[in-house]
Amino acid sequence: MADRPYVFYELTNAICSICLHKVEAKIVIEGERVYMHKLCPTHGRERALISTDAAFYRQQRAFLKPGQLVKKFNTPIRHGCPYDCGICPDHEQHGCLTIVEVTDHCNLTCPICYAESGPHRPTHRSLERIEFMLDCVVRNEGEPDIVQISGGEPTLHPQFFEILDAARRRPIKHLMVNTNGLRIAQDAAFAERLASYMPGFEVYLQFDSLRADALRDLRGADLRAIREQALERLDRLKVSTTLVVTLKKGVNDDEIGDIVAFALQHPCIRGVTLQPVQVAGRTENFNPARDRLTLGEVRQSLLRQTPWLKPQDVLPVPCHPDCLAMAYALKIGGEVIPLTGLIDPELLLTSDGSAIAYERSPALREQIFKTFSTGHAPAMQALSLKQLLCCLPLASAPEQLTYENIFRILIVQFMDAHSLDVRSVKRSCVHIVHPDGRVIPFDTFNLFYRDGREAQLNPRRHQWPAAAAD
Ligand code: SF4
Ligand code: SF4
Ligand SMILES: [Zn+2]
């Protein structure tokens, strides 16, 4: 009797990366690696790498918690997931972060832009449409944790500040602007006005590399001077900033440690978000077989390149543990102290040293889940981290722990046509508003719903149950 060369771990649904039909998929573990094996009746077999860290893949399941629902579902269940977005009643998680794209226009033409933005796309959404989209976020979330104004390049919208004012009039806890930083670097008055939205405001600054060649590969331009100028202004104006690093294998994934160290030198920076390229939209020079990075691999690189972080510091985020992992550290008096430096290691480690032993302490488990679950809502972060530290023996949290003391490293993986797992996408908590008012998980939006892509799908072939012979 021959053995399979892998362990068959579970069965799920996925999509064929060529025709985007729903297909059955086996998740298999081969040594340290996790793969998805798919079979499309038309396009045959497909094998996609899901993780390079089988132990962490298993650990991600230990972080599941009951989903929190949106206040209102927006679409009926008709064809079956992922063709009913959304949010349809089958979705398991509300939006921790909701994106509102205000323009298709951009002053860059990045070779990896999922929105295919650029100077050639002049269209800005009207203020009226944007107000409607903001109302859709409030309709779904009540008091949204984070709304991110995005594009294109949102700072180029002629009514940009009116958009921020419109967002401010709504009960949004934390407002972010996703930007390439050009306008902040080049327009002092603009940066000053931006700073007037603090607190409860954050710049989500594109920052992929400290090297010219990597920036040219990812962004089509050497943006080092622009980034420096923008950060100098944001530091001076004390504007909370997160660096967003789009990672491409072999281009900038060796720079994670350097970028984290760089971020720690800037007082305005609250954290770094590491985001592997999603194979969607414009993906020039991108070979999926060669260039796809998984969350597991990014986490391994982060740990290798950032010696002060231990594996127990970088944990799955319970609202969507397949796609989000996070590390917390405190910045206190010029020092950076990771979570493991604050918590009794006995409480964090199992006997084999591999995982959190929170099972031993239900109160700790609850507090860790709470702290990591509210990872997207900065106003809550300081509070829940403080509560976590308060109930722990080794904790020496400063009395006045604020958002300025927090340094957060977040790994965000968006699924693409290769890796989409229907089991997991139902938990997506990064949502985006369609201009027609639907709110859609970001992963499926780029695959099926952006720029009218769904019209190109053949709905008959996606009927539920699907007709395989169609
Ligand atoms: S991803 Fe969520 S919203 Fe979209 S079809 Fe599936 S369950 Fe519904
Ligand atoms: S990735 Fe961002 S900066 Fe680059 S073209 Fe797209 S919208 Fe513009
Ligand atoms: Zn197919």
**Looking at the structure, what is the overall shape?**
globular
Determine the strand fraction and express it as a percent band: 15-25%
Number of strands: 16
Low-confidence stretches: 349-360, 391-396, 462-470
Structural class determined from secondary elements: alpha/beta
Counting H and I runs of at least 4 residues, what is the number of helices? 16
- Using only C-alpha atoms, the radius of gyration works out to 22 Å
Largest beta-sheet details:
12 strands, mixed
What integer is the average pLDDT?
Answer: 85
Small molecules in complex: iron/sulfur cluster, zinc ion
Gap between N and C termini = 38 Å
Q: In percent, how helical is the residue content?
A: 25-40%
Please explain how this structure is put together.
29% of the residues lie in helices and 21% in strands. By secondary structure, it is an alpha/beta fold. Strands 5, 6, 7, 8, 9, 10, 11, 12, 13, 14, 15 and 16 form a twelve-stranded mixed β-sheet that branches. It has a four-stranded antiparallel β-sheet with strand order 1-2-3-4. A hairpin with a 2-residue loop joins strand 12 (324-332) and strand 13 (335-338). Helix 2 (127-141) runs parallel beside helix 3 and helix 12 packs antiparallel against helix 13 (378-390). Mean pLDDT is 85; it is low at 349-360, 391-396 and 462-470. One iron/sulfur cluster binds next to loops.
